[in-house]
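ugh ok fine here u go
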Amino acid sequence: MARKYEVVVIGAGPVGATALAMLGHAGISAIGIERETEPWPFARAVHFDGEILRLLQSIGLADKVFAHCRPMCDFRMVDQADETLIAHVTGQLGAQAWPDQVLFHQPNIEPVLRAEIERLPSVELRIGTQMLEFSQDSDGVNCVIETPDGATEVITGRWLLACDGATSSIRRQLGVQTEKLGSDDPWLIVDGILHDSAGIPGDMVFIGHYTRPALWVRLPGERVRMEFKVMPGDDPEEIVTPEGIARLSSGILNVDKFVPDRVAIYTFRARLAEQWRIGNIFLAGDAAHLAPPLFGQGLCAGMRDIVNLVWKLRLVARGLADNSLLDTYESERKEHARYWVSQAANMARLLQTTDPEVAKGRDDHIRANPTESLPPRPPLGPGLHDGGHDKRAGVLSEQPTLDDGRRLDDLVGHRFLVATAPDLLAGLTRDLTARIAASPEVVVISDPAIVGPLLASSGAGAVCVRPDRYVLGAADDAAALEALLNKVPTLAPTAASV
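structure:
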């Protein structure tokens, strides 16, 4: 007999596990299918930004995750002579009310996510279980899975979320092609413990040597990561030895001080899936996009996929929004991800050049234009916001810290926020005011002590923020606010009768 769920999640890496945790907090019944019996024991991602900590805050996990993180306080890039081209002091609290950049050891983060899944009653995770085949129709997705004892079982879901990584079997079986946005480049990744050594000064250092491009990252405790471009003529068996690693690192990762726990040659790729929604199936994380790890946005992008999709699934599942809302997942997230994949691919091309003249031109340009090294945050692609008409919409909102130390989202929860000046609120029609009062999905705050900083940063009299913390739109008068709020799915005039 088939077991029925609203969502089936394939893959329980950090993106799939976050999906299950967020679905659980949304009260949506979901099951996760994970082939491996234990979390991956080695680090892949090492970086979150403030937006991801804010996402984790929404499900009560930010403090638990942050306990395993190290704020990144010193970012640099050096040239062939090890002279600093650019340097940024980071680590301070940013606009998301969390440090702008943090570093972590991924095996310390995944147990926090899995413990939350275990705690939530509407979701479950099946480990040691794999998908054998699937099919979909207008009602949902039918999945045949193999359990740890070799038996088969059928489970059904209204939707399926493919978080099964770069080699996604779901994507391949659906015949979804990927767009190539950059070159494929092999790098040697080395993770481990560096005892009694300062290593390279700085938390993250791009080493722009045209003779051997490399990257240094200082992780929490004594953990470090170094990445080295694999060069023509390298012996792939020699460069992975302790002696080879010591040589490539110029003695930084000396055999007497460094204990590796992961040494692997990994190919950096820049890819974007051409479709992210196929009927009732959605691609997320590495199944949808791959980027060279130059801005640390790979896992961040996957987490953004999840927070964008889950609130929409919740409204559709509860009958508070039309199924077409789910189409905005691909349109909004795909272009946002494309931006970061392209930026990382372009930076990879510049960083890993082995041509002395190209490297010199790059270095001269960076010295003359240091601010270009950190790309601005992009807006969402077209979707449920006024981004085509108002540049204040479709962007990530700020999160003020309140006078009592709380953060704004702690008051808002998983709802739309209407942050407004009192006079604009007073100018709304009686009908809309009644719909707002009747909707548990919307919270209105007009206290300037709470939302004043948010309004000031947007330069608007009112701002509507979506549950994923992106701005639905801004308004400068009551009429514009009325029109904006009628675009909120749960406030639309037709929703009053739902």
